[in-house]
Amino acid sequence: MRNRCVPAADRHTTSRRALCRGLGAVLLCCLPGLRAQAALLRDRPLDVAEVAAGLFVSQGAQAEATPANLGAIANTGFIFGRERVAVIDSGGCRIWGERLREAIRRHTNLPIAYLIQTHMHPDHVFGAAAFLPDKLEIIGHRNLPAALARREAYYSRRLRQALGDLAAGSVIMPPTRLVDGVAEIDLGGRVLELKAHPPAHTDNDLSIFDRATSTLWAGDLLFMERVPALDGSLLGWLAAMEELRRVPAARVVPGHGPRAAAWPDALADQQRYLGLLRDDIRTVLRRGGTMEEAMETAARSESGRWTLFDDYNLRNAAAAFHELEWE
Fold it and tell me: pTM score > 0.70 for this model?
């Protein structure tokens, strides 16, 4: 069924807090050098690559957000048709959004009409204020406003902790237009198909299919090289991948990883990891094991295949355990 776009009218343990304080102390010691590196990055033209005709991607760092990378850890970019431009995700801070806007202007003077937010996570949404002069429509999943409202205070606090004064002006801007089901936007002879997915990576994932170049922009429904981060439904994510596999795309832009990859081959590693996470946790549950056991053992064989594995696999296992114990 096709629906039109409709206008929009962590738990933390003591040990994790201690770790954050320790990292904060290290950051303070290194701050002058990090600021110098950030200044060089900020003043350098943003590197964007045209992965298909009129479709440009800036590749995010395979790291956590720091002053040195300006929070630019997700793939962002833009697409233009004959009449207007759509931005896909704005990056991890206002400075990065400004760099992305400057990159657009190096390639086209067409009006920037849309900002498509693929989901709620801060590395994808905190650059939005850079596009205020364009008076564009901000498009997101029907669940996105509520998700952003729930975490806005936490995300803003963590951004300031991660970037310090480089976070200035970075604010969350909720969508002005919502997608429920499937919707289309026309850039002028170039139609983008937007799909609002059931809970998967989050409960507000939006994918974009560019018919003109057969390119799927998957957002964080697809991680490559960096371990997937589960913040929605494990079973839903596995189902979403099967649905995405049927999209007649030639290439995909993942939320994290290379700028583009062949489709559907790009799904293989993530599908293996999430499937193993599911199967290992079900094994623990069948023998009456605990969540702690699941966290220590689930998908552990994948540890050498992904960056940031130890940062995310434990929490993935905990989230999946809570979901699967009620099967």
Answer: yes
Give the angle 163-134-5 at the CA atoms, nearest 5°.
Answer: 100
* Cα distance between residue 194 and residue 209, in whole Å: 7
Rounded to the nearest 10°, the torsion over CA 260, 263, 266, 267 is 140
Residue type for 14, please?
T
Residue 99 is part of which domain span?
Answer: 46-265
Total number of domains constituting the chain = 1
State the Cα angle at 224 between 223 and 226, rounded to 5°: 80
Q: How far apart are CA 7 and CA 26, in angstroms?
A: 45
Residue 10 forms part of a structural domain? no
CA distances to 29, 47, 56, 109, 182 from 59, rounded to whole Å, are 28, 8, 10, 23, 27
Task: Pull the structure tokens for residue 18.
Answer: 């201690």
Q: What is the CATH number of the domain that holds 63?
A: 3.60.15.10
127 falls within a domain: yes
Q: Does some domain include residue 16?
A: no
Helical spans, DSSP H, in the chain: 14-43, 94-107, 122-125, 144-163, 234-245, 268-286, 291-297, 309-324
CA torsion angle for 319, 142, 136, 159 (degrees, to 10)? -20
Could you read off the pLDDT tens digit of each residue along the chain, which spans 327 residues? 344 454 444 433 333 343 334 434 434 444 455 555 555 566 788 999 999 999 999 999 999 999 999 999 999 999 999 999 999 999 999 999 999 999 999 999 999 999 999 999 999 999 999 999 999 999 999 999 999 999 999 999 999 999 999 999 999 999 999 999 999 999 999 999 999 999 999 999 999 999 999 999 999 999 999 999 999 999 999 999 999 999 999 999 999 999 999 999 999 999 999 999 999 999 999 999 999 999 999 999 999 999 999 999 999 999 999 999 999
DSSP state of 246: T
Whether 316 is in a domain gets the answer: no
Number of Cβ within 10 Å of residue 130's Cβ equals 24
